[in-house]
Amino acid sequence: MNQHTTYSKCGFWHFAFEVFKGVEGNRRNLITWNSMIARMMLNKESERAVDMFQRLESEGLKPDSATWNSMISGFAQLGVCGEAFKYFREMQYVGVAPCLKIVTSLLSASANSSMLRRGKEIHGFALRTDINRDDLLATALVDIYMKSGHPSWARGVFDQFDAKPDDPAFWNAMIGGYGRNRDYESASEIFLMKCWKKCHMGQVDRGLHFFRMMGKEYGLQPKPEHFGCIVDLLGRSGRLDLMQELAEPPVSVFASLLGACRCYLDSNLGEEMAKKLLDIEPENPAPLVVLSNIYVGLGRWKEVERIRGMITDKGLDKLSGFSMIELA
After folding, report:
1. 15-39 burial by CB neighbour count: b if 16+ within 10 A, else e?
2. CA distance 4 to 252
3. pLDDT band at residue 198 using 50, 70 and 90 as cut-offs
4. Residue 324 domain flag
5. pLDDT at 1 exceeding the cut of 60
6. Does any domain span residue 202?
7. Phi, psi of 316, deg, nearest 5
8. For position 281, which CATH number holds?
9. Any idea which of 119-128, 175-184, 193-202 has the lowest mean pLDDT?
10. Would you say the pTM of this structure is higher than 0.90?
11. Cα–Cα separations (whole angstroms), residue 118 to 79, 121, 143, 205, 246
12. CB atoms < 10 A from the CB of 311, how many?
């Protein structure tokens, strides 16, 4: 069957098809059929591909994931979304699990055709099968929601990642999508977040410059996620002390800052954050426990005893579920 494969790859599908038809039935296995169906789709001969797909059973064969992939991806690339989704549903009905490539190709086709309903169907499938955090899939979801005029749904996809993907296409889909929907403020925010993500050790000043630009040049109020980026940047660079030079972070960032102080053993800022958190929740011992752990890491045992004494004096060691055991 090498001859039929060679003709197919060279675009001479007519010759490949004749060679295929001339082979005796018992020598045409599923791999051969899949190759021929894929080549028909590649050469935009979808009617012949459908006919061959339907004839598989007469040969005593059943479509496998590769067969379904050729049909669904083929129709999606041809822009015939209705047929692509038809085979997608049939594939699930017969119990064959779609691969990530199929799901992504369907989403791309939906975005190009502005078929929001079908895009949401794929999103639902991705959530049910726990593949929604794939970078390519997430980018395709952002693209379709932005093109359909639903930037808030695209933002939901973006926010599901605690650690954002590095793929530039993911960020560009968000920035370009906001621009397309005339939400230039959000586009600027995402752009700045992307810039901070690229600022690693040795680029602290650049990251702080972008942060200050938000208010001074763009008139944007930093949100918790922006402070989170700065905490990560300064923490990795051992410069958490610079947080004091910036605007007061929102309450939701205090715990993250204290966690960063634990990682990088910054006792000065740790004391400040622990105090702020205790002012908000005086009956929560966690800030003092974390602060105690900072001093353990520094080997400052007198301070460890002082903090644990505070926990005892406040009666926080008697709370249900609390332990004085040092938390690593």
Report:
1. ebbebbeeeeeeebebebbbbbbbb
2. 64
3. low
4. no
5. no
6. yes
7. -80, -20
8. 1.25.40
9. 193-202
10. no
11. 13, 5, 14, 45, 45
12. 19
User: Do 152 and 191 share a domain, yes or no?
Assistant: no
Choosing from 234, 249, 264, the residue where a domain stops is 249
The residue ranking higher by pLDDT, 131 or 322, is 131
C-alpha–C-alpha distance, residues 23 and 10, integer Å: 20
Longest dimension (CA), the chain: 91
Q: What is the pLDDT of residue 327?
A: 42
What tens digit of pLDDT does each residue of 133-142 get? Answer: 888 888 888 9
Number of domains in the chain: 4
Place of tokens 């609390």: 322
Structure tokens at 219: 């008139």
CA distances from 242 to 97, 205, 231 (A): 51, 10, 10
Residue with tokens 């060279």: 10
Alpha carbon distance, N-terminus to C-terminus of the chain: 63
Q: Give residue 18's domain range.
A: 1-112
Give pLDDT, residue 155: 92
Residue with tokens 């900072």: 294
119 inside domain: no
At residue 7 the predicted structure's pLDDT band, cuts being 50, 70 and 90, is: very low
Alpha helices in the chain (DSSP H): 2-9, 13-22, 30-42, 46-55, 65-78, 81-93, 100-112, 116-128, 135-147, 151-159, 168-180, 184-198, 204-216, 224-236, 251-264, 267-280, 286-298, 301-313
Q: Per the structure block, which two tokens stand in for 244?
A: 């004091």
